[in-house]
Specification:
The complex is a heterodimer. Chain A is mainly α. Chain A has helices at 2-10, 12-43, 51-86. In chain B, 52% of the residues are buried. Classes of the chains: A mainly alpha, B alpha/beta.
Amino acid sequence: MNRFFAMLRYDKKLLWLFIAGIIDLLIILGFVAFDVIQLIIISENSAKISSVFVGVNIAFIIFVSLNLLMLITLFVIRKLKEKRDEL
Amino acid sequence: MEKVEFENQLFEAIKKDDLKSFNFLMLTNADLNLCFGRFPILSLLYLYSSFKILKEYEKKLLPIHNFKQTQEKFEMYKDFKQRAGKAIRLFNDNEIVYPVLMLAVLNEKTILNNNYKFLYKNVEIIEKFNKIYNLTQKSKVKVNENNISFSREKLKTKHYFLLSVVAFILALFIAFPSVLLAIVPKKNGVGTEKYPTKIATAAEFLQVIKRGKGNYYLTNDIEVDAADITSNDFSGVIDGNDYVIKLSGEITSPFINTLSGTVKNLEIVLNEANIKITQNSSIISEKMHGNVENVKISGQINVQYNGTDDVYFALIASENESTISNCITNVFGNLVNNNQTDAFYSNFAGINKENGKVTNCSSIGGEIQADTVDIAGIVSENYGVISSCENKTDLNQTSSKEWNPYVSGIALKNYGTIDDSKNYGALSSESALAKSSVDTTTQEEKAFSVLVSGIVSENYKTISNCENHGLCSGKGMAADIQVGGVAVVNYGSIEKTKNHGEINASSSRDERGKDANGDEYLYYINAGGVVSKNYSNVTDCRNYGSIDVSGKVSNLIIGGIVGNNSIAIEQGEDNTYSVHNGEVKTSLSKGDIKAKSETGQVCVGGVAGYNSYGYYGIYPYYCSVLNSGFVGNIEANSEQTKPENAFYNDTLDKPLTVIAGGVVGINNSAYIQNCYSNVEFLNVESSDEIYKNYAGVIGCVGIFEYKFSGSDSTGYNSSALNRVVNNYYVGNKISSNKIASSYEINAIYVRNGLTSSYSSGSVVALNNSIIYNCFESSDVLMVEKNSLDEIPAGVKIDE
């Protein structure tokens, strides 16, 4: 672990990538936590479920979709470059 | 430190990435160009991923190309061999593994690209570099001027697997909120029309009110403390889902100020709610531009009016500009007006404005006791439409203040349309004021009126297809009393409307009022089975209710359909004047009439008590009773011994104490056509026989004016003319003094009144005018055939 952080400190790009990944993960966990809390409230029949709930979950879907899209895009680019290199 | 020990410690520091030790050793012996056999320090740092040391020393180590050889350790070779794999064959025993080659072996492309862009122009190194990549990564490398470019390695199965796992996890994260969005709105709602939000607690309900918009529905019965209510405008939808809101505590404001949305399917139970108001208010909404549907309000309320201006309170909305439909009330209430400003109560809407509709609403029970608060079953003032409504709440008002107590089954005032509505509640209005104060300007006793009616107190537009089944009772002392089965005063149109309720009116005052001159006058009681005072159209109406009126010092004017059929001149807002003349058409009364006054005059008609004419400028306007009839008994008596303040027949110069007609009591230069009666007079009595006059059709025909004591005004006017044509008495109970009995005579002029001081007759008791085609028949069977529910339009009776 110590060596891992040393590597992060050595490589700034890797460090930023790591930070971005952590933030990304925290945001996703934040969304999940919000939904879990809302589900607890829902189970108590609250009227607080409102457009905020819908809005947050739509944001959740959009955010994770962007992650997935980015992953797929990188994969596609990589494949395209592979093809180009083969040629 | 010995050399060997130094090298060992240095190797250990590199392996463990121990920067402190490395620093220490460099301070002791700064041999950065040291090369362990084939491995320079930098190459070892790469091999063992010693990033801490690299971060500090890489820049210093990069430029070093000449190395100071020392003993290679076997462990180094072993580790290098393991990492190099097939590439190990490219390195001879004595060949230095330059850092750039070590990075190639380790496939550290990022470091290569960061640090080795321009460093190596050595052809041999480049060649070996390429060989390493070809051998280990099966990819080509091109060393350019500015960078090193690598051909992409083909992704391996493990990469695809990793990619798939990450994609799957992300897909799960997308699915999770999607499923929530699909399930939760259905379960709890989100405030949209499709997915309304649940309300399960009072706090949530109050929050919804505060929020002011959105779609909601109740999932439980809830209890709300009125003190917690913060009124707000609301534009959304609250669906009660047939659950109950129990409301208790002190109510000072409604749930909603202005409702532009909808409240529906809700039951509100008022649990001893104390309501204190200073301005218009209600339980649900003050101003309503939206809809209230299928709402039930029941329970007990105590309302205190403390306003300084008119205050309207209604259970649903104090002002309605939209629709209240299919609502129900069942409320027991005590109302107190602490001030003397106008105060109103109604079950559904205070003011139903022009665009307002109250439809299919019913008060199914309950009772309202009011002290100086005018009350109505459905609406206080109607400018819009009331249709298919019912009132079964008993409404009682008593006031001991200088106040006109109004009570009506449907509405107090109607400027709009009331259709197909019914009252079943018992209605009672009483003024307990023993004596009113004297006006300081006119020195006249202030005049007050008690008004009670089955449908509307004052009608200015349209009432149709309505019914009253409730008792209408008016009581008073220092006030005129006006009771109508349908309306008290009619300036509009009343059509196809029935009264089944009993009409009771009584005055207990035994002292006369005094006018500005100090002269005494009598109070009046006006009562009609349909209308008390009629200044407009009453068409196709029925009265089945009995009328029982008694007074001590009051004059009584009573009719089976209308009490007083008269003329009114109305001044418009633009100072134009319009004349309203009463017209009763195709109406039938079957209720018995009983009238008794101790010291006043009694005027009773089976259809109209008093039928008169009037002038606007030089133009006479005649009231009329057309195609109408009466079937029933009439009792009329007065014990008056002194005929003061009597109805005078000026021509005859004769006071008339008791006047009773099967159709009209007194016909004062007005029209009566195609009417009939089957009346039996019971107990028509006067203190003096000379003062009683009764007949099958008209009690008295002539030109009259009220002639009060001390006044010598004459009522005679030659341009006024009675038109009494084709009327019938079809009973056989009046046997004496038949005056006009032949239909063959088209024009008879009878002046028997000149020679007869009292009379009874089949058609006319006392006549002072011209009568055309009036009939007396004893064929009762024809009455049964033609009467009752059939209008005897142009009644045909076989000879």
